[in-house]
Amino acid sequence: MTERRPRSFYVLAFVFALFLMFLYGPMISILVLSFQGPEGGLVFPMTGVSTHWFQRLWEGGGQVEIGSALRRSFVLALVVMVLTVTISVLAGLAFRRQFRGATVLLYVAIASLIVPSIVVSLGIALEFRLLDDAIKDFGAATGIGWIQNDFVSALGPFTSGLGAHLTWTLPFGLLIMFAVFNRFDPAYEEAARDLGATPWQTFRHVTLPMIAPFLIGVAVFGFTLSWDELARSSQVMGSQNTLPMQLAAKTTTVTDPEIYALGTATTGGSILLVLVTFTLISLMQRGRAKRG
């Protein structure tokens, strides 16, 4: 005899279904509407099914001019990813050794997670405006021509923008690496040193292969968080927009589903990146299991 489920089970199931609809409904709607016909609009019902808006987006002749913003965001995300992985690993190795002020330094490093993103962006923009004034005053005092005639601002994607994105990605990378090294068994490294390995050889042949799957996770975090960051980018990019900023600016004027096609394409790229990441981690774990 089957046990009768309580009424609360169905209530919770209904609430969970509403949550899934609220979470994935907009994404599914954009996915569907991006395949509108040439005469389609921004809302249902659809008028035909085609890849017209993807072709228009690829050709670059539509309302959403994304070529330069897309390239800029991609390169910036790659730089942020590399720096996030490198700094997180170095910090994780450093925090394995007890030193004075480590706890305070940790709190300072992750404090930006609890600060509103727009406040961080405004603060960085203010710092760079003060830096701009200092550079201009220095140019006027020393008579340096290019500063007086050509310098406008130090604000840009790879100066203030890079710093703003790192305030978002680094805390996640640090927390992941701290958790990894907290569970790391130092006996493997001690065995390598007993066999005559140098510190670099120990890291290269023992530590790095063991933490490699986690490094891939940190890299994905760094890339994706930078790729779609808007609030921290809003005040610090100067005259050059990133892709999220370009999209935000276009949402008030776009009148066709081309922007939906862009959303579908970028979402598909993110999903592909996640799938590739899980595949690489799975292959690494299988290879390590075979060697073990």
Q: How would you sum up this structure, described in words?
A:
The chain has 292 residues and is mainly α. The protein has a domain at 66-253: MetI-like (MetI-like fold, Orthogonal Bundle), CATH 1.10.3720.10. It is 71% helix and 0% strand. It is built from eleven helices and no strands. Helix 3 packs parallel to helix 7. The radius of gyration is 25 Å and the shape is globular. It starts with 6 loop residues before the first helix and ends with a helix. 22% of the residues are buried.
Based on secondary structure, the structural category is: mainly alpha
Q: Would you report the number of β strands?
A: 0
Give the second-level CATH assignment, the architecture of the domain at 66-253: Orthogonal Bundle
Looking at CATH, the homologous superfamily of the domain at 66-253 is MetI-like
What is the CATH topology descriptor of the domain at 66-253?
Answer: MetI-like fold
